[in-house]
Each structure stands twice: as C-alpha cells, then as structure tokens.
Amino acid sequence: MKAECLASSSSGNCFILEFNVNGVPTRIMVECGIPLTDIYKRLNERAIMLTSIKACLITHGHQDHCKSASKLNDLGIPIYASKPTLELAKCNGNELMLEKPNRVLDGLFVMPFSVEHDCEGSIGFIIKTKDECVIFINDHKRWTCNLSNFKPDYVFIECNYYHTTVYAQLNELKKMKEQPNIDEKTLAEINIKISQHERNLESHCSLRGTIKGLEKLNLSNTKTIFLMHLSDRYANEYIMKNEVQDKFGIKTYVCKKIGGIK
C-alpha cells in the first residue's frame, strides 16, 4: 500500500490509499474534508489525477471529514459512509453496513465498526484486499468491538492531544475560575475554554488513549502506524511519535495539517 496525506487536522482531513488489487494499482480516498479546489491542487502536486480515485470512504458527518462529499459524488466518485453520515453530508452515497464486509470495488472490501464520538454514525474502517489489511480510525474517544482477529499491515489512528498538556491547562483554568473578584468577561472566557477542553476529552483521543487503542489490536503484521488529526494547540508530534514508536517497536509517522507525512 502507498499512502498520501492531503490534510489532517480539525481544519480538514483527506487521505489517498493506493492498493495493488489483482495486479492493478487502485486508489481510494478516505475522508474528503477540504474544499474540492484544495483536493485538486494537492493531488496535482503529487501527480495524481482525481479520475484515478475509484471510491471515497467517510468516517463521520463533521465538515472537516465530509466537506466535498456531494461534489465528489457529482463527479462520479462513489461515496461510502454510514447512513447518518450520508444524511449529514447531504450526499447520495452508498450506505455501509456495520461489522459486515462491504464490497466497495472488485477485490477491495470494507468492514466498518462503530466508534464513540460526538457525531451520530461515526465509524472506523477495516479495509481489506487479498494481500493487505488497513485499520483506519479517525475522530474517536474509544471503540468497543473486538478487532483482534484482524492483523493489519498498516494502522491509521487519531492522536489528537497530549493528555499531560490538556489536564494541566484544565486544572489551571479551574483554579483561575475560583479566584475572588473575577470579572464576568474573564469568567465567561474561562468557561468557554473549559468547555472546549471537556469536549476534547469526551470526543477525541489523547496520546494515552491512542496507545490503549493500539494495545487492543493484533499488531503482529503491522509495518507502519500513522498518527492523524493532531491538535494545533494541544499536540506534541515529537513526543507522540516517539512514545508510540518506542512502545510498539513499529515505524510511526505523523500526518501533517496541510498534507504530507513526517
């Protein structure tokens, strides 16, 4: 498999995966959460034609994951997602049935599974060909289904924030809130920041959560781990990359905000 990251952050997500299917290079897109003009531009920079993309998988209905779904569908690229995601994306796509192998292309199957996130219909993917298996889990807090029977060659997984940083900032904000004679404007600003942190903690995956998730997988065949959706403010790509790589002894890369893999 070959992988290209066109975008990976809360500003937008888009990936190209290329498989060898029965001797034929076959590309799919996973997530399309950036404007179509940016998709064209970033594909062109990589000498990839949009017409070579045979399908697009979408994990959930937030705009940073599904922004261009309807336009891609209009251009003839089949969209695959859960029913709630298709409705949120306002897209006439193909509904994926949970925990069953869905034939997306000849020789390429997708088994979706539910993940916990603050968006109805959020799913992860097991993408399989005859020769390779990919597990792709973007925005999530956790998942409950047992995936240990699968032996992925590659794992793409969200690692949104460094838990030590977020908990330290949250505790500091709560202390500030308790200060005497705090003015209403400052209090309102603090409450907004606390709410943002608490939302992150309940709907996204920390470095610690990413490691716990990876521990549930059978990584005996895994060649590479890709960390996705790092927060601009609360991630530390060097610590995250090194801790995951040291923990599992598997080559680990970070998917960058405006494209590229580091």
Number of strands: 13
* Widest sheet, order of strands: 7-8-9-10-11-12-13
Order of helices and strands: EEEHEHHEHEEEEEEHHHEHE
Distance between the termini: 17 Å
CATH homologous superfamily assignment of the largest domain: Ribonuclease Z/Hydroxyacylglutathione hydrolase-like
In CATH, the architecture of the largest domain is: 4-Layer Sandwich
CATH class placement of the largest domain: Alpha Beta
User: Mean pLDDT, rounded to whole units?
Assistant: 95
The share of residues in extended strands comes to 25-35%
**Count of individual helical segments:** 8
Helix % is: 25-40%
Q: What characterizes the major β-sheet?
A: 7 strands, mixed
CATH topology of the largest domain: Metallo-beta-lactamase, Chain A
| Rg over C-alpha atoms, rounded to the nearest angstrom | 19 Å
**Helix- and strand-based class?**
alpha/beta
How many discrete structural domains?
2
Instruction: Return residue spans where pLDDT drops below 50 for at least 5 consecutive residues.
Output: none
Shape: globular
